[in-house]
UniProtKB/TrEMBL annotation:
GO terms for molecular function: nucleic acid binding; nucleotide binding. The lineage of its organism: Eukaryota, Haptista, Haptophyta, Prymnesiophyceae, Isochrysidales. InterPro entries: HRDC-like_sf (IPR010997), HRDC_dom (IPR002121), HRDC_dom_sf (IPR044876). It comes from Emiliania huxleyi (strain CCMP1516). Residues 132-214 form the HRDC domain. It comes from the Eukaryota. Residues 35-67 are annotated as: Disordered. This is HRDC domain-containing protein.
Amino acid sequence: MELQHPSDLSAYELERLDNIKRNAAVLASLGLADGSGLGSSPSARPIKRRKPAQVRPLAAPERRSSRLVDGAKAPDFYIANETANGRVTVGGDARALQQATQTATAAAGADSMDPLTLFGLGAMPEGEDDLLESERAAFASLRDAKRAKASELGIEGYKIAQHRSLAEVVRRCPTEVEALRACWGFGGSGVRVDKYGAMFLEALMPHMPSSASELLPGEAAALIAATHARAEELGEGYVWSIAPARSVCEMVRRAPASMEELRSVWGFGGKGLRAQRHGAPLLVGRLARRDTVG
């Protein structure tokens, strides 16, 4: 590069050169430079070159869920339907669903029985599907009363009573508000009983089974006493599980003298489980009444 003559430089450039010379002299006096490199550029720093980035191969994601250990697949299940009384229908893998159903049925035991068998064992229905054909008309009346009341109040029907509650009312056949409190969904604080109990009892009344009021005075006393004694013997809190009122009244009128004849009485038919479990003591009670009258 050709150096310019001082006369060709501007005042700023001349001043800059004087400063460079003065600074170089100071550095030389300090032993930091020899002063010969006036106007020269500082030594260039070594250029650091970046190492090329290493490309790592993509690894498969780690499976840490216990559900996916050993290559297991997630179950293909979903809730296909859910009713107001809490019953759910599961959808998804048909084979897995079938296996789950079989396992649940084997574990539940009595749940795999038909409604008539469960009735004979004194089981409570959990919905309309668990009712006997003879109980469905009463259930329909209670359900219609509930829907009418819900429409009148502008609220959902399940807030008045769930289907499970209505099914149990049909099975228990309560005649008083206090007896209604023993039904599922009507206990606790008793708010539903206080608000809607009388309505449900009125709707149930036309479907009530024959009652002892249709019998002669004292005609069913011995049989009713035998029913209560059997319930107390088994520690059963509800006498209806031994024999409903309609069964007791029909036993009095039919006057069965054997187990075979007892099976023709309402509530003792079907698979005859109730007759097998409670038939003998009830027959003894009925015959005791006949001997007393005779």
